[in-house]
Amino acid sequence: LLFRSGEGRHERAGVCDQRRPRTPEPGNEQIIVEVLRSTPARLLSAARHWKQAELCEAIARQAAHSKGTPLEFPLRDPLLMRGYLIHPLLDQAAMVMEGLAMHNCVGKLYHQCRVSSQRMFSIRDQTGNRLSTFDLSFNVAGEQDGVDILDIAVNDHRGRANRDPGREAQEVVGAFVAYLKEKAECLQLREFVMMNADSAHEVLIEVWS
Fold it and tell me: What's the distance, Cα to Cα, between the start and end of the chain in Å?
């Protein structure tokens, strides 16, 4: 099809083709109808989204075959919290698939997590539907009475396509942070922070050597 602009609207003009018209393949008739009904702007937008989806799928397939070094974290299985499951995202494939499903950038943060105590999590309902994605940073913030003070910070929390996650999801994250602080000694979170600092140093040496 050839598109031309006229009087503030887009008009469609057929391209003459002396060849015998081909019969659409089965199942493609509806696609052809939608294309004929579309404006140039919609077609360009669809093409961009198509190429982006192809790229994301290729990245996800590559990451699935090479998960990278699994990240350390005391909780490795989903944790039920206020009726939702919090899934730790502890390898590159899990993070890429989360980013692909939720249309966010979490899939690009694997290497950042390897050199820090930052960890990514996915909130899902009990049927597997994703609600939001968030990340936490764990640090030892000083000392009080000879005991290390553990600081757990929520860096970012986003719903699908980087939208606001909503109050319910925020309450789930708040309850999860409170749980981690309460169970810090049992989960050995301080040891995790110190061990991860050493591991991050080794990774940096590996990268720069």
Answer: 55
Handedness of CA 199, 201, 203, 209 (dihedral sign): negative
Of the pLDDT bands very low, low, confident and very high (cuts 50, 70, 90), residue 9 is very low
In whole numbers, what is the pLDDT of the chain averaged over residues?
77
- CA dihedral over 4, 5, 6, 11, signed as positive or negative: positive
Q: Which long-range contacts (CB under 8 A, 24 or more apart) does 192-199 make?
A: 192/72, 192/73, 192/74, 192/117, 192/138, 193/117, 193/138, 193/139, 193/140, 193/150, 194/140, 195/72, 196/72, 196/116, 196/117, 196/138, 197/117, 199/72, 199/114
User: Helix 40-65 and helix 92-102: axis angle, to 10°?
Assistant: 160
**Integer Cα distance of 35 and 38 in angstroms:** 5
pLDDT for 158-194, tens place per residue? 999 999 999 999 999 999 999 999 999 899 998 888 8
Q: Tokens for 9?
A: 């609207």
Q: Which residue has the tokens 């553990």?
A: 150
- Six-digit token string for 92: 């590159």
CA dihedral 48, 51, 55, 60 (to 10 degrees): 90
C-alpha to C-alpha distance for 102 and 156, rounded to whole angstroms: 14
pTM recorded for the entire structure: 0.67
